[in-house]
Amino acid sequence: MVTHNVIRFSTDTRQQVIDITARVEQALEKSKLADGMVLIFVVGSTGALSTIEFEPGLQQDFPELMQQMIPAEKEYRHNRTWGDGNGHSHLRATLLGPALTVPVVDGRLVLGTWQQIVFLEFDNRPRERRLMLQFIGEASEA
Amino acid sequence: MVTHNVIRFSTDTRQQVIDITARVEQALEKSKLADGMVLIFVVGSTGALSTIEFEPGLQQDFPELMQQMIPAEKEYRHNRTWGDGNGHSHLRATLLGPALTVPVVDGRLVLGTWQQIVFLEFDNRPRERRLMLQFIGEASEA
Amino acid sequence: MVTHNVIRFSTDTRQQVIDITARVEQALEKSKLADGMVLIFVVGSTGALSTIEFEPGLQQDFPELMQQMIPAEKEYRHNRTWGDGNGHSHLRATLLGPALTVPVVDGRLVLGTWQQIVFLEFDNRPRERRLMLQFIGEASEA
């Protein structure tokens, strides 16, 4: 079976690390997938996906790491072209990547106890975000 | 259905960010996949895949970021072992990763308007590149 | 067909780059998958997956790169919260990502000659590691 779903949400730039695990679980339940995988994909070029232990310390540590590695205020050629000042957003998104695939076994996401699926918002303005979820595998018999 | 295809192209080191979206779309059309996903995979250890807004500014910003994070001229142990001077190429490729999976819905890649699939050439000499594309899902009925 | 398998192994922190290619090949053979893909996923938030040319130089270069980009001794907010001193481990794992998908054609992993699948151990203490392998595609007819 193959079935897709779309997750939508609004973001602002003060909260870069957003836990989407519950939203993916809800979509998984609706999909009736029993065994297989779910591909989560950021439609857009200034956000990314990964997993993290979603606790307040790391929620600040990770954006600080990004700011140190790819500073927002540096002058990128992208900014000269477009004037929207988000060259750093694009570079961070390309580095982290738009796709995450998570295994599904017995109708559940396979994740560690302290491992959450997160959307990483890198843009410098509030955005309406859209994630495509593609479920592939065997459906539950019920 | 499962079907694969191989994309081949030549690269040089002056152009690190290479838009392969049209090539993937052509292979998708040929595959007859309607709904599912395409896994794109770099066969080799000095290139990587991601998505980016493919415009001239970022095409220079991204290689500059790589050079700042993982300088080409630094002395890596790999270079002492092999003498080919591409330790930075391997490290960049491992950091970015060889695989990208993109959802397919209604026979089309699900991508943002300003989001292209790119091959990242990190090697320090021209290469003949080979990408494996693996399509999985439901075929179109036509 | 969809079938999963679990790979388990012990790690210590002196060896960060661990070649798991042979373990994945063994699980692939057992799975009877002929064409499709294998999703490899780190269950946990302080390890990651990628590919690399698994030679002694890069086995040291890569951990040195991580230490330069995300130093272990820096004071992260995560460390103040939990006191386990592994904030750097979490950040490195989120940056690299927990998932790797590798194409399978004719019952074999599609990899370059000098390209191995590696588990990246980022934690600061020995761990019992668990990787979920999810195989999807067409079974061999035999």
Features:
alpha+beta, three-stranded antiparallel beta sheet, Jelly Rolls, homotrimer, 142 residues, five-stranded antiparallel beta sheet
If you had to describe this structure to a student in words, what would you say it looks like?
With 142 residues, chain A is α+β, with helices and mostly antiparallel strands. The first copy, chain A, has a single domain (2-139), classed as Jelly Rolls (Sandwich). In chain A, 29% of the residues lie in helices and 40% in strands. Chain A has helices at residues 21-31, 56-69, 77-82, 87-96; strands spanning 2-11, 17-19, 33-42, 47-52, 99-105, 108-109, 116-121, 127-139. In chain A, the strands form 2 sheets. Chain A has a 5-stranded antiparallel β-sheet with strand order 1-8-3-5-6, covered by helices on one side. A 3-stranded antiparallel β-sheet of chain A has the order 2-7-4, sandwiched between helices. In chain A, strand 5 (99-105) and strand 6 (108-109) form a beta hairpin. The longest helix of chain A has 14 residues, at 56-69. Chain A is elongated, with a radius of gyration of 16 Å. The model of chain A has no long low-confidence stretch (mean pLDDT 96). Chains in contact: A-B, A-C, B-C. At the A-B interface, strand 3, helix 3, helix 4 and strand 8 of A face strand 3, strand 4, helix 2, strand 5 and strand 8 of B.
